[in-house]
Amino acid sequence: MRSTRSLRLRFFALGLGLLAVALVVTGIGLSALFSRHLDRRVGQELDTHLQSIAGTLRIDRIGTLSLAREPADPRFSRPFGGLYWQIEDQTAGGRLASRSLWDFVIPRGPEVAAGAELTRDTAGPQGTSLLLHERNLVVPVDGVDHRLRVTVGIDRAQLAELRSGFARDTGYVLAALGSMLAAGIWIQIVSGLRPLAAVAEAVGEVRAGRARRLSTRVPREVEPLVTEMNSLLDTQERELVRARDRAADLAHGLKTPLTAIAADIRRLRERGDREIADNLEALADSMRRHVDRELTRTRLRHGTSRAATPLADAARRIARVVERIPAAEGKTITVGVPDTVLLPVDGDDLNEMLGNLLDNAARHARSRVRVGWEGTAGTISLLVEDDGPGLAEDERAVALARGGRLDRSGAAGLGLAIVRDITEAYGGSVTLGRSELGGLSARIDLPRLRA
Predict the structure, then answer these.
(1) Between the CA of residue 69 and those of 18, 154, 225, 235, what are the distances in Å?
(2) Is 288 in the same domain as 321?
(3) Rounded to 5°, angle at Cα 73 from 69 and 74
(4) 254 and 320 share a domain?
(5) 451: domain CATH number?
(6) What are 58-96's pLDDT values in tens digits?
(7) pTM exceeds 0.90 for this model
(8) String of b and e for 187-207 (b: at least 16 CB within 10 Å)?
(9) Are residues 389 and 285 in the same domain?
(10) pLDDT tens, 324-348?
């Protein structure tokens, strides 16, 4: 089924079909031309023998036929040699023939005028078929006109053998030519479709985020396709910008009500209603995280940007923000990342990931949170570790499962869900494990951008 969907194989099959037809027609044409040439050549040869025999013909006074000189071709002298001559004296009834005829007499054909020539086919010795050239002559001897019929013939089996030999040799040549032309057709098809393969590769580069647009340096026939695809990418980018702007507007619109709720929570605590304040804070925090996740999903549905972002800069900035929340009071967040490390993630998405990971780590750490990185030839990894109680292996699976929750507020589950959504949008993965600090280690593996 896949082969029928291949343009390369379709073109190749069509090319082979047309090539086969052309070779067959060529073979038939060459055979016909050779046959015509052979007939002309044999006819000229028979005429030459006919003239030679007529020129050396002698008739004595009593009507005996003889030749002054036998034809030089040895086939005339070999019994059933394939080349024959015969002279009939229709006046005196004499007959003279080549040794090759042995005792066979060539049947007489239709009468023709004196000096005229006739070409015909007739049965020959040993069941053969002969091609004959005949000429009627009038030779006067002592006042008597002798009407002579001079006949020269050749075995058609020899002609057939020549034709079959030519057809066989031509078949070999055409087969070799066909093989070379088939290889040429395949090379031409592969070369002709190479721009489409280049376009497909360029689309893959755009999809992977390693390029923004398709190169317009393509053949003229492919240029409309590339232009349309670039226009589509332009439209998608504009939609992405509008989606991000709408998400930002929504976040700004929700910021004021959440800020007002936070102020009410502080007043409740000041009045001593700590339990109500804690419940409201948990609800507000859960609502904020739900909003953050939906905003993230909206942004990711409209595509991701593959601009590389300095990891150390973003980690220090988010760490300073997280250190101010009550849950991080008295805890240290260290960033062990060189300034030169770039993460192949958009800046806003990286901030979202770091914010959720550091917030969760700060909530559960005893005293320390550490941000690190690792890199291989094809992957770059972000690590956030803490010295808290960590998670059991079955709890890690729940935390990463869609909709998984590990506390009543659902904060940890939603935070990791947001991180997972963003990471998967960039072709990466999230892994939870045991940290060297004793708590939880969250590891994000992302494919590197190619230079």
Answers:
(1) 57, 20, 84, 99
(2) no
(3) 105
(4) no
(5) 3.30.565.10
(6) 888 787 888 888 888 899 999 998 999 999 988 888 899
(7) no
(8) eebeeeeebbebbeebeebbe
(9) no
(10) 888 888 889 999 999 988 888 888 8
